[in-house]
Amino acid sequence: MSTIVIYKTKYGSTKQYAEWISEDLGCDAVDAKNVKVDDLLGYDTIIYGGGLYAEVINGVSLITRNIDKLRDKKIIVYTTGITPSDVREYYDGEVIDKNFKKGVPENIKIFNFLGKMIQKELTPVHYAAIVSLKKIMSAKKNPSDMVKLLLELCDADGDFSDRKYIKELVEYAKEN
Ligand SMILES: Cc1cc2nc3c(=O)[nH]c(=O)nc-3n(C[C@H](O)[C@H](O)[C@H](O)COP(=O)(O)O)c2cc1C
């Protein structure tokens, strides 16, 4: 059974998880920018990781656009983000709707991990996006729970990544 981990990262969190997963599985972890879909055809299990940016899984179109070519593969997609676990069930549904418009194909399983957001490391574009989101959300009268959550997330500042989160993914990847 050959396995590969591919990741797309902006601040390093998704890469960190890719390295932990590849260590546990004894396989390579490769930056998605160096990968084309045809490079994946020789593997049985493909693990794709991307950070969440406005609910979009960074770079996941490498998988979703090529799903026909990857039909016979076992595919695992993991996300990293700062959404806390108590709202994940609701939130993960939103992420699925946005990234898998036709629903999640049967050969794909998704895992979601806490990542990192260090305010002082944000690019000017990302910082501006967070400030503008905060402004829009703060102006809402009678904010919904989701709006309150987004406001809270805009202020998140820290690295919440933890190797312990990959356990279930690694076990699933090892299953035949
Ligand atoms: C502009 C911006 C938008 C973000 N949007 C989301 C989001 O929709 N959901 C989420 O859980 N985290 C969100 N995050 C947090 C990132 O997903 C998190 O920092 C992730 O670990 C980044 O992974 P990477 O460093 O590997 O790219 C956002 C961060 C930024 C800067």
Number of discrete domains: 2
Distance linking N and C termini: 8 Å
**Annotation field: number of helices:** 6
Low-confidence stretches: none
- One letter per element, helices H and strands E, the order comes to EHEEEHEHEEHHEH
Gyration radius from CA atoms, angstroms? 17 Å
What is the percentage of strand-forming residues? Answer: 15-25%
Q: Which ligands are bound? A: flavin mononucleotide
Mean pLDDT across all residues, rounded?
94
Overall geometry comes to: globular
Q: Report the helical percentage.
A: 25-40%
| CATH topology type of the largest domain | Rossmann fold
The CATH architecture of the largest domain can be given as 3-Layer(aba) Sandwich
Description of the structure:
The chain is built from six helices and eight strands. It has helices spanning 13-25, 61-64, 88-99, 124-138, 145-154, 167-174, and strands at residues 3-8, 28-31, 45-53, 56-57, 74-81, 108-114, 116-117, 158-159. The radius of gyration is 17 Å and the shape is globular. With 176 residues, the protein is of the alpha/beta class. Helices cover 35% and strands 23% of the residues. Strand 3 and strand 4 form a beta hairpin. The mean pLDDT is 94. It folds into two domains: 3-116 and 159-174, Rossmann fold (3-Layer(aba) Sandwich), CATH 3.40.50; 119-156, no CATH class. Helix 4 (124-138) runs antiparallel to helix 5 (145-154). Strands 1, 2, 3, 4, 5 and 6 form a six-stranded mixed sheet that branches.
